[in-house]
Specification:
This protein has helices at residues 12-16, 34-50, 57-64, 68-74, 78-105. With 110 residues, it is mostly helical. The protein has a domain at 30-105: Orthogonal Bundle (Tetracycline Repressor, domain 2). The longest helix has 28 residues, at 78-105. It is elongated. The model has no long low-confidence stretch (mean pLDDT 78).
Length: 110
């Protein structure tokens, strides 16, 4: 469920202040699948290995085994990829908290 966003001539700092879509419910997954999911997984791997600043869209495309144009098809710009990776980290955190809460509710940590 990748969304294209056009920030026009805004700087990344100004674009970061734009409102993002809010999740209706914590049970609603925001994981990307298929090609966008592969792109996010490749970006996350590269960001963890070499850092966000040192990772280019071309290197993300190479790692995901897609063309650079396909990355831009699914994500309006590099910031869109970064935002999707952050969403992926948040999804991991939510899943961890949810599973931990289930353990507490089921009395495993009593």
């Amino acid at each position: 469920m990748a969304t294209k966003r056009d920030y026009g001539k805004m700087t990344p700092l100004q674009a970061a202040g734009c409102l993002r879509e809010r999740r209706r419910d914590l049970t609603e997954s925001r994981r990307l699948v298929d090609t966008p999911g592969a792109i996010v997984a490749a970006a996350r791997k590269l960001f963890e290995r070499q850092g966000v600043r040192a990772t280019s869209v071309a290197s993300i495309a190479r790692e995901a085994n897609v063309t650079r144009e396909l990355v831009y098809y699914h994500f309006a710009n590099r910031n869109g990829v970064i935002e999707a990776v952050i969403d992926d980290y948040v999804e991991d955190l939510v899943e961890s908290v949810r599973s931990c809460a289930q353990c507490w509710c089921n009395g495993r940590f009593s």
